[in-house]
Every structure is written in structure tokens, then in C-alpha cells.
Design a protein that fits this description.
With 430 residues, the protein is α+β, with helices and mostly antiparallel strands. Among the domains are: 91 residues, no CATH class; 94 residues, Nuclear Transport Factor 2, Chain: A (Roll), CATH 3.10.450. The chain contains 14 helices and twelve strands. Helix 1 packs antiparallel against helix 4. The longest helix has 44 residues. The two termini are 32 Å apart.
């Protein structure tokens, strides 16, 4: 009875999830190579001829960008620069002092020549996907991947699907396990003669692991139904860990506050990132007393001090961001605590007026919940282990699609069989 109940749960959970997982699986396989594809589709957004002169300081580039868009509020500086790579900065509108409302801007990103500071392009990113062009194609695929391109409604629907998917991972895994005892009826069916042969005895007395091994195999020459069943069961087993990683991390992306955080806090004591380093101010502080050059020097000094205290080494600078809602600068570097392929996660926060340290966020070594969360995010977004892992993520997306299609096929065939039996029963009664 318990197994039959779980079969029903798995069946109807799979039917609900099928559409979401097909969309997520196919789009995820593409997004595993988002950056290479974007550079191929839109080379003018990323590349320009390498020049012999030195590139401008990132803070100088920020100043030039701010002068080009005075009605914008540029609150970030990216320190990573690559020769021949376009320098891009996202921004939002300033508040119009006359109306106390944000300026209406037709763009939210500026691209500069890193050697001269020359304006290359002003564009509107992440807003509107029609008509589809090479410039917004990947953005549309990304929006499909986590919210069906439907905004908050789609994100909520995907969040519910992610929760169900996470739970169904365990249900599906349990259903692959063989019965702990071989029933006498099964033994009788395996016997050809009144007295069982040695072969039938060895089959009936196989251990748990020998019987479970069948679930990991695919009988390629079997009938269509059996082949789909084997692909569904074995495909789920071989990729189970990846499926769970994607399912639970999807909950973190889509239902962070309502589901993910309470569970991670309860299990691992993970803090609430919404309140790091401190809750939002009553009113945003859009004009900190520290200018960007002083803030940069302050961030370097404070990060060096934290490195000495926590025992890590700074390898490279990544970002300096100002958060007006909390009145803090966020300084991020790549350290020997980081595990992602590019960039860094090691972060400190300091007050925008006083320069005093108000918090830190280390990817490893402080809180097991934070470490797990960063690993889940990085694994989901294919930011670790280079090209081999991106290929694995792409393959997993295709497997997710396969599991959904085979699951629906199995349900449909069983439904057809049940209807046929019902029809024969009605004819017999007549």
C-alpha cells in the first residue's frame, strides 16, 4: 500500500512537472554555454581590437560613463579587464530633483572602449523580447528558464514546481529500490518445475544489491514500453545527484525566503542574506560621504585586514558596488577561499559614510550553510570545473527532458491499458 501510494504521488507529480522540466531542461542545456554563445551571437558587445596602449583604470572608466549618462546612477565598478574586451556597466536612473521621481531612461547599460573611454553603445537589457533578435535571444531563453518569460507569476509557478521536484527526487529514488524481501509468489513464478532448479534458487536468493543493479541498466532490445521504463528509471538513477542539485537550487532561486532559507537555516544555520550586512535603511542614502577612490582604498585596506584575521589571500579584485538601500559599499575579490572558475565571492561590506567594516561574506570556512548555498548556486550555473562540467550540465538538461517525456509516455500507456480493460469488462457484463 505504501509503495502504491508513492507510485501515485510520483506519477501525478511527474505529470505536473513535465512541462516545466522540459522547458527548464532544454533551455538549461543551452544556458550552460551562455557566455560563449553570447560572444558568438553578439561579438560587438564583447570584443574590439587589442591596442598597444594600456587600458584605463576602472574607476576612471566609471567616471567617464557617469559623465556620458548624467541622469543615471552608476553604482558599480568592475575591476576585471581583459585586453580586447568591451567594458560594460549596468545602471539605474537617478531621482529627478524637480519631480522626486526617477528619470525615464531608454537604456540601462553602457559599453565603453577600455583603452579610451569612448562610448560604444547605450542599450536596454533584459526588457522586452519581441521581436526576437540575436541580441535578445539568450536573454529570452534565460527568462524562459526560470520564469517562463512571465515575470513574477512564472517565477512563482516555477518555484512551486521546484519544490515538488525536490520532494519527488526522493520518491523516485525510493521507487527504484527493490522489495526488501522476495515474496513467495515471485519465487514460485521463477520456478519451472515442482522442485526449483539451482538457477531458480540462485535467482530467488539474490541479495538486495544484485536485485537493485537491474534498475541501473537499460534493456535496449526490449519492447517500446520496457525501453521507456528502463530509460526513465536508469536515467533518473545515474543522474540523481545532479537532478537533486538542480531541483533544490531552483527552490533557492525562486522561493528563497519562503522555503529555501527556512530549511537551510534549520538544517545548517545559514543566515538570511536579505539582512546582510544590515537591514535596509528607512530612506536610501544615494550620496555617501566616501567618494569612489576613497572607497576603493578603504575596501583594499579592510580586505587585507580580514585576510590576515581569517587566513586567506587575495588573488584579484572583482567588484566594488554601492548599495544605497543599506548605505554600504560592497567590495568583492577572488581569494584562495573561492572555488568558481571566474571572478570571486569573498566579500566585505563597509559603511558608505564612515568606512567602518559592517560585515563579511566568505564562500567557505565560516558557515556550512553558506558554503553549501554557494556550491549549489555555482553548480547550477556551471561556474565550476570548466568545460567538462558545462558539458555535464548540458547533458543533464537533456536527461531531464528525457525523464519528463518517458514519464508521460508510461502514464499514457498505462491509462490506455486501464481503459481497454474497463471496456472489456463492460462488454463481458453485457
Amino acid at each position: 500500500m505504501r509503495r502504491h501510494f508513492l507510485v501515485l504521488i510520483h506519477r501525478y507529480a511527474g505529470l505536473y512537472l513535465a512541462f516545466f522540466l522540459v522547458v527548464a531542461g532544454l533551455t538549461g542545456s543551452i544556458l550552460a554555454f551562455y557566455h560563449p554563445l553570447d560572444r558568438w551571437l553578439n561579438p560587438e558587445h564583447h570584443q574590439l581590437p587589442v591596442q598597444s596602449r594600456a587600458m584605463l583604470d576602472p574607476l576612471v572608466l566609471r567616471d567617464k560613463a557617469q559623465a556620458l549618462v548624467p541622469q543615471a546612477e552608476i553604482n558599480e565598478v568592475a575591476f576585471r579587464r581583459v585586453p580586447g574586451a568591451v567594458y560594460s556597466v549596468m545602471f539605474g536612473p537617478r531621482t529627478n530633483p524637480a519631480t522626486q521621481q526617477p528619470f525615464e531612461l531608454d537604456y540601462n547599460m553602457i559599453r565603453l572602449n577600455p583603452y579610451t573611454g569612448e562610448l560604444l553603445e547605450l542599450s536596454k537589457e533584459g526588457v522586452g523580447y519581441w521581436p526576437l533578435t540575436r541580441k535578445n535571444l539568450l536573454g529570452f531563453i534565460y527568462a524562459l528558464h526560470y520564469q517562463l518569460a512571465l515575470g513574477e507569476t512564472g517565477q512563482w509557478l516555477f518555484g512551486v514546481a521546484a519544490v515538488i521536484w525536490t520532494l519527488d527526487c526522493f520518491v523516485g529514488f525510493y521507487l527504484t529500490l527493490p522489495a526488501w524481501r522476495v515474496r513467495s509468489r515471485d519465487i514460485r513464478q521463477q520456478s519451472v518445475h515442482v522442485y526449483p532448479t539451482a538457477a531458480s534458487c540462485s535467482t530467488s536468493q539474490r541479495g538486495f544489491w544484485q536485485r537493485w543493479a537491474i534498475a541501473w541498466k537499460v534493456k535496449w532490445r526490449a519492447c517500446r514500453y520496457r525501453l521507456n521504463f528502463d530509460l526513465h528509471r536508469a536515467g533518473g538513477l545515474w543522474t540523481w545527484l545532479m537532478l537533486f542539485i538542480f531541483a533544490w537550487s531552483s527552490v533557492g532561486f525562486n522561493m528563497h525566503q519562503s522555503v529555501y532559507l527556512p530549511v537551510m537555516h534549520g538544517l545548517f544555520g545559514m543566515p538570511d542574506f536579505q539582512n546582510i550586512p544590515r537591514p535596509p535603511l528607512p530612506q536610501p542614502n544615494t550620496n555617501p560621504k566616501l567618494d569612489w577612490y576613497t572607497a576603493h582604498a578603504t575596501g583594499q585596506r579592510l580586505m587585507a585586514m580580514q585576510g590576515l584575521q581569517a587566513g586567506f589571500t587575495v588573488l584579484d579584485e572583482d567588484f566594488l558596488v554601492y548599495d544605497p538601500t543599506r548605505g554600504v559599499f560592497v567590495y568583492t575579490v577572488r581569494s584562495d577561499l573561492d572555488f568558481v572558475d571566474e571572478g570571486g565571492i569573498t566579500t566585505i561590506y563597509f559603511d558608505g559614510n564612515t568606512g567602518t567594516l559592517v560585515g563579511e561574506d566568505l564562500p567557505t570556512g565560516r558557515n556550512i550553510g553558506v558554503t553549501i548555498a554557494y556550491w549549489l548556486t555555482s553548480l547550477h550555473m556551471a561556474h565550476v570545473f570548466g568545460l567538462p562540467y558545462r558539458l555535464l550540465v548540458c547533458l543533464t538538461g537533456l536527461v531531464v527532458t528525457l525523464l519528463s517525456v518517458t514519464g508521460v509516455y508510461l502514464w499514457w500507456k498505462k491509462r490506455q491499458t486501464a481503459q481497454q480493460k474497463k471496456g472489456r469488462g463492460a462488454n463481458f457484463a453485457d
